[in-house]
Amino acid sequence: MEKIIVSRSIPQPFKDQLEAIGQVEMWDESLIPMPRNQFLEAIKDATACLITLSEKIDSEVIKAAPKLKVIANMAVGFDNIDVPLVNSKGITVTNTPDVLTETTAELGFTLMLTVARRIVEAEKYVQNGEWQSWGPYLFAGKDLSNANVGIYGMGEIGKAFARRLKGFDTKIMYHNRSRNKDTEKALGALYVPFDTLLEHSDFIICTAPLTEETRNKFNAQAFEKMKNDAIFINIGRGAVVDEEALVYALQEGQIAACGLDVLREEPIDMAHPLLSMDNAVIVPHIGSASVTTRNRMIQLCVDNITLVLNNQYAKTPVNLK
């Protein structure tokens, strides 16, 4: 009998599909992670698990789960999983690429425009009853039209973001671990060194995954090189940014503003200095949060589990070279 652990509450139709192939033990909360000790206990005799980024899959988990065959991660990134260790035990790791690309790019674009036009500040101003009259420079923001936009990480989400820039007559630069001339031709993007991206961009969008190469990439030295009126947007991974350096850059006027969908620690500590800054807009990791996309992500996880437990190849296995 297969046993499948689901670490967050998912809609009944998806649970029904999993129950057709085994016993399902599902954490009933959607906003609160399954406690670590409970997860470790539940996974002892599990053959599959459907998890989120909140669940850290390390040697402790693998040691506790000798029957585990597949881990379906409801995300594109998989920095919460020790993939080499898991693969060495013959366990399949899967993720959810492609299905969330467009939705995440849309959120990034929304966040960029929201910060550029100071929408959150302006809305609070109205709600607080402070709006007395029109003013020539009242909440004057920054134009996207004709701006230099730098994309750090030209993967699928980076390319989807770049496609959305075409209607704004922007100049697109990008930096990636490898150059893609087909992408440059299709999107009119210019490949540049990282320092050039920092020095010449009016907007910098980070879509990069977390790797040892990208960890703390946006540090004090990086923010010092940016334009004083630059806007920084992160829809990649929180640990790509040194948050102390970001706070300093905002306080000292090294950059103008930021918009963040991801943070180093989630949820954010309510005492975090970013929360007191008018020029920082933070949303709760909702890049892929449309109903259609979340349904597709869960369905892909269910499909991967079903395939592996039926001794077939997963649709989207994570294979590290």
TrEMBL record:
Residue ranges occupied by any D-isomer specific 2-hydroxyacid dehydrogenase NAD-binding domain in the UniProt entry: 109-287
GO molecular function terms listed in the Swiss-Prot or TrEMBL record: glyoxylate reductase (NADPH) activity; hydroxypyruvate reductase [NAD(P)H] activity; NAD binding
Domain of life: Bacteria
Family to which this protein belongs: Belongs to the D-isomer specific 2-hydroxyacid dehydrogenase family.
InterPro entries per the UniProt record, alphabetical: D-isomer_2-hydroxyacid_DH (IPR050223), D-isomer_2_OHA_DH_cat_dom (IPR006139), D-isomer_DH_CS (IPR029753), D-isomer_DH_NAD-bd (IPR006140), NAD(P)-bd_dom_sf (IPR036291)
Organism from which the protein derives: Staphylococcus shinii
Domain D-isomer specific 2-hydroxyacid dehydrogenase catalytic: 5-319
Alphabetical list of Gene3D superfamilies matching this protein: NAD(P)-binding Rossmann-like Domain (3.40.50.720)
Keywords recorded for this protein, A-Z: Oxidoreductase
Protein name stated in the entry: D-glycerate dehydrogenase
Keyword Cytoplasm annotated: no
GO CC entries: cytosol
